[in-house]
Design goal:
The structure is a homodimer of 199-residue chains. By secondary structure, chain A is an alpha/beta fold. Chain A contains eight helices and nine strands. In chain A, strand 5 and strand 6 form a beta hairpin. Chain A starts with 7 loop residues before the first strand and ends in a 6-residue tail after the last helix. Chains A and B meet through strand 8, strand 9 and helix 7 of A and strand 8, strand 9 and helix 7 of B.
């Protein structure tokens, strides 16, 4: 039973839903989990370390990595490029570690196309009113930004309907338990298990 | 979050794999679980109660139920008929209870055809050598019967490759935990969850 290969789980969800807390709790509960570090062309902010917060690449390097098909997904936001390098993901999976990707929904679609065995989990708020309360509660954004994040969340929600799983983050405990159950269940798929039994 | 509808989980597996113990532990751990009682035309054995061990039907009643499409699946063994009445399953599911069906693999295929949202779990032995040891260890059958059960188990194993999940019963604790994880995960499917969020 020791030849388990890791699986990749994508965690998507609207801004303010509490994904960061859920991911932190998942990582704390299982030290073998690998959390994918994105690559970006944006400049490091004070305190950010290369390879820890991001892999910081020049635009030239980033484009070379695209040409070399080194990204599981990549996108552009406000003039900067962001991507998920596949080599770290592959290495972790080969070591039998499960991988968490915290990426945008468009990126999730790119990964699923490339790797159909990737499991996509959408973290949803218990209600849109509650998401609005959480966004306002953070106190970091003005009302206009809250409204625009909310509108984007609803748009994404419609696009997430073909995700594999929906986890409602009403309490962090429940959301974490459900994601852990999904990870356990996905390791019980026949393709992985049949190989473990002598035939 | 209170409108949850129950789901049906089929537990299949070869004779001797320990399904009975696993099912008993699942039922003990969750009193809301409904374990489906089969109908049969065979005569009750001493101590067997109608509606508890089986729904005992006459051949005439059984055939009427088939005509009325009252079975999720039915089959014939050694001159007796066995079937899963759908009314008890439906009632439990409407009450929000998950349902366990401990049935043969042919029955599992019938149920899946009729109810594609049914989840099929195959409980496998860690190895065929271990299954043989368990069958011999029960001490209830001669070697010829052990060999024939083993051969049937291997045949079924090949047919179970398109099941949704494989759980390896190396330890009962692990098998029970995995089945519970599968049940939790299957309640996180988008079709069930999206309805819970106001849109």
């Amino acid at each position: 039973m020791c030849v388990k290969r890791g699986k990749t789980f994508i965690i998507c969800g609207p801004s303010g839903v509490g994904k960061g807390t859920v991911v932190a709790r998942l990582l704390a509960s299982d030290p073998t989990l690998y959390f994918s570090v994105s690559a970006t062309t944006r400049a490091p902010r004070p305190g950010e370390e290369n390879g820890v917060h991001y892999h910081f690449l020049s635009m030239e390097q980033f484009e070379r990595w695209i040409e070399e098909d080194q990204f599981l997904e990549h996108a552009q936001f406000v003039g900067n490029r962001y991507g998920t390098p596949q080599m770290y993901v592959d290495k972790a999976m080969e070591q039998g570690r499960d991988v968490l990707l915290d990426i945008e929904i468009q990126g999730a679609d790119q990964v699923k196309m490339k790797r159909p065995d990737t499991v996509r989990i959408y973290v949803a708020p218990p209600s849109w009113a509650e998401l609005e309360r959480r966004l306002i509660g953070r106190g970091t954004e003005d009302m206009e930004k809250v409204k625009s994040r909310l509108a984007r969340g609803k748009e994404e929600f419609a696009a997430a309907k073909d995700f594999d799983y929906f986890v409602i983050n009403d309490t962090v405990d429940r959301a974490v338990d459900e994601i852990r159950a999904i990870m356990t269940a996905e390791h019980c798929r026949p393709d992985e298990r049949i190989a473990l039994i002598d035939q």
